[in-house]
């Protein structure tokens, strides 16, 4: 297993800064997702680690070795592309063995390694087929087998699942995690899909305009976003603008909002984030209460709209002062709340997250 380190890496194309002095550490054996919108720099960072792009400044270290100027073929990496990049005229076995041949491994030794790789991606016996005889998910597995057959130190994945339909994508997510855990490969995965990043990763790095704005475990970046961009990019969020009144309290839209997380000093403006699924919706009468420990935040509100999606219901509600909140409720009963219905909204102070910037 091999760690990867990126130190003060920058890259520009003309006057456009694609990466701005990025420094980060990818621990050995970890699965890290680079997450961000188009143009955030995530693919450029991956290609710099791979060696396809040379940074304007900064260094890339793999296993303690400075590889910043080392060519792709001498970095001992495996890479899977979005397009699979399989050779259509070659058999599955020959596609998988392509990297071995370039390393001078042929004959029986190559055959054994190909069989091992196909077993790992659960495609034993598929060696004689051509890519056109395979489903999209099977082609993706072949591309993955080709990447790992050479026993690389690092596995780089550039949006490899984006061409698959939802069901196959979910299946391949499970397989990717299994293969990564079994192989112990340090894996860096580029995606723009938030759910995918949270599902697969040990760590998630969120990029915005060439900078890493937050990196951490999936629960950390989701539950405690560092700033508004991170909170917004990782899913639906209610943003509340307010002023700190005292320790643990904020005045927002005329409402007193409690937070268990450290706030700026009293008098400072602050943006609070509250995830829609953290808010509980109850009858205005308080039925279905919280026993002896009511939540710190309770607001009277009126339902504005509801969207039924089978397993869940999305509500929009308005509290006094024009404070509008989105709420995700699991579909536990058949009753759908109607516009104009008075309700009580509540959530824990732990789920009121002040944002930097």
Automatic annotation (TrEMBL):
Q: Read off the SMART domains from this record.
A: AAA
Q: Which UniProt keywords apply?
A: ATP-binding, Nucleotide-binding, Transport
Mind listing the GO biological process terms from this record? quaternary ammonium group transport
Q: Which organism is it from?
A: Aureimonas phyllosphaerae
Keyword match ATP-binding: yes
Full protein name: Putative spermidine/putrescine transport system ATP-binding protein/spermidine/putrescine transport system ATP-binding protein
In Gene Ontology terms, what is one molecular function of this protein? transmembrane transporter activity
The UniProt entry, under Pfam families, shows:
ABC_tran (PF00005), TOBE_2 (PF08402)
What superkingdom heads the lineage? Bacteria
Look up the record and report any one GO term of the cellular component aspect: ATP-binding cassette (ABC) transporter complex
Q: Which family does it belong to?
A: Belongs to the ABC transporter superfamily.
InterPro entries membership:
AAA+_ATPase, ABC_SmlMolc_Importer, ABC_transporter-like_ATP-bd, ABC_transporter-like_CS, Mo/tungstate-bd_C_term_dom, P-loop_NTPase, Transp-assoc_OB_typ2
Q: Where is the ABC transporter domain?
A: 4-234
């Amino acid at each position: 297993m091999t760690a990867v380190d990126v130190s003060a890496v920058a890259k520009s194309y003309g006057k456009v800064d694609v990466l701005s002095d990025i420094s980060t550490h990818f621990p050995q054996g970890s699965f890290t997702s680079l997450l961000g919108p188009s143009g955030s720099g995530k693919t450029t960072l991956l290609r710099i680690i791979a060696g396809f792009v040379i940074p304007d400044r900064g260094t890339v270290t793999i296993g303690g070795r400075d590889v910043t100027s080392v060519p792709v073929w001498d970095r001992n990496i495996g890479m899977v592309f979005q397009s699979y990049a399989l050779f259509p005229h070659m058999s599955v076995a020959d596609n998988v063995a392509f990297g071995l041949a370039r390393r001078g491994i042929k004959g029986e030794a190559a055959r054994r390694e190909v069989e091992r790789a196909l077993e790992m991606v659960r495609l034993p016996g598929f060696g004689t087929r051509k890519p056109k005889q395979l489903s999209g998910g099977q082609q993706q597995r072949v591309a993955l087998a080709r990447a790992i057959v050479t026993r690389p130190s690092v596995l780089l994945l550039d949006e490899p699942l984006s061409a698959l339909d939802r069901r196959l994508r979910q299946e391949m997510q499970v397989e990717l995690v299994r293969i990564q855990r079994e192989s112990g490969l340090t894996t860096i995965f580029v995606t723009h899909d938030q759910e995918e990043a949270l599902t697969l990763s040990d760590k998630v790095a969120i990029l915005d305009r060439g900078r890493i704005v937050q990196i951490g475990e999936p629960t950390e970046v989701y539950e405690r976003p560092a700033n508004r961009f991170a909170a917004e990019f990782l899913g639906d969020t209610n943003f509340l603008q307010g002023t700190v009144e005292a320790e643990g309290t904020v005045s927002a839209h005329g409402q007193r909002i409690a937070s268990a997380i450290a706030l700026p000093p009293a008098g400072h403006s602050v943006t609070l984030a509250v995830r829609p699924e953290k808010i509980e919706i109850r009858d205005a009468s308080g039925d279905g209460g919280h026993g002896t420990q009511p939540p710190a935040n309770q607001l009277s509100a009126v339902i504005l709209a509801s969207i039924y999606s089978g397993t869940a219901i999305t509500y929009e509600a308005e509290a006094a002062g024009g404070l509008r909140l989105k709420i995700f409720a699991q579909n536990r009963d058949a009753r759908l709340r109607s516009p104009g219905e008075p309700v009580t909204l509540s959530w824990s102070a732990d789920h009121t997250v002040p944002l930097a910037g």
